[in-house]
Amino acid sequence: MDGASWHRGDKLKKWENIIPLFQPAYSPEVNPVESLWHHIREKGKFKNTTFHSLGEVENRLV
Question: Do residues 60 and 44 make contact, with C-beta atoms less than 8 angstroms apart?
Answer without folding.
Answer: yes
